[in-house]
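Before a colleague's protein record goes any further, I have to sign it off. What it holds is a sequence and that sequence's fold in token form. My question to you is simply how this chain folds and whether the tokens agree. Thanks in advance; the entry in question is below:
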Amino acid sequence: MSTPFKKELEKYRDVDEDDLLRKLSEEEIQQLEDELEELDPDNELLPVGLRQKDQTKKAPTGPLNRDQLLDHLEKQAKESKDRDDLVPYTGEKRGKQWIPKEKPMKSVIDSVTLEPELEEALVNATDAELCDIAAILGMHTLMSNQQYYEALASSTIVNKEGLNSVIQPTQYKPVPDELPNSTDVEETLKQVMENDPELEEINLNNIKNIPLATLRAYAEALKDNTHVKKFSIVGTRSNDPVAVSFAEMLKVNKTLKSLNVESNFITGNGILALMKALQLNNSLVVLKIDNQCQQLGNKVEMEIANMLEKNPVLLKFGYHFTQQGPRLRASNAVMSNNDLARINRADVSWPRFSALELEEI
């Protein structure tokens, strides 16, 4: 159902707007623009320059000159007269000025009475003796830490400089650098290959120039060696191939008790190869693999924990787990191995002992 208003608009449906605009005069077009601007002066869909009609009748003088415009505005601001204040400023101070009250300072010396002997001793005391007395009384703010602790630790006067002395830095004793590893790599390898009974411990720590082929030769020679019990290659730049070689050695060797491969460039693949080799080794009780060039990751740590739970021999495992779950499982596995080792040393069956008694074995 159509309303009367819609019927009224029906007659304008077929009107040609362009034809109407062409018939308008210049004055009528200007009047139409004024009407449209009054109807919608804040139309955000129009560009900024078209939201308001151009009311400038003066012809443009040229392009914008920012410096001239600023000079003109500054000149106009200086020439305009300031507005008079309603209440002129005279600089007169009114009211009463606030003055804080001075609190009387009580003399501490006058309020303290000492025995004549003590007063005479303090008057005649030297600076060093006063420094020790201040330390005993706990007045540590009057002296340096070194003076304070030296006075408390000694029964005699040790602070000879007094309270007004310049604080000196603590003189530290120089610590000599650690001597380089003097192990002869080639000669030791020869002894391992000959199965020398006097060679039970090999320490190649921090020798940087050992070729990787030489380290793999050590692993190959240890397969048939029956005397070496401790082997350490900390900080020798060993990598995964070296770790795999030692893993193959652990599958065969039945004498080695301790292996240390810390601070090297072994990744998760090399570490897992060593851990898998422990399933076929019943002699190794100490294994240290910490501080490698990169973190092993959660997956590798879970595999390490699984293999430690399957190994009943390992008593010490040197690695700092980053995840709590694998750390707890590995700790429990190593602790169980230590408990079994104590029971085997006691040569008594497990159920006879309580937890407290196991600690004493």
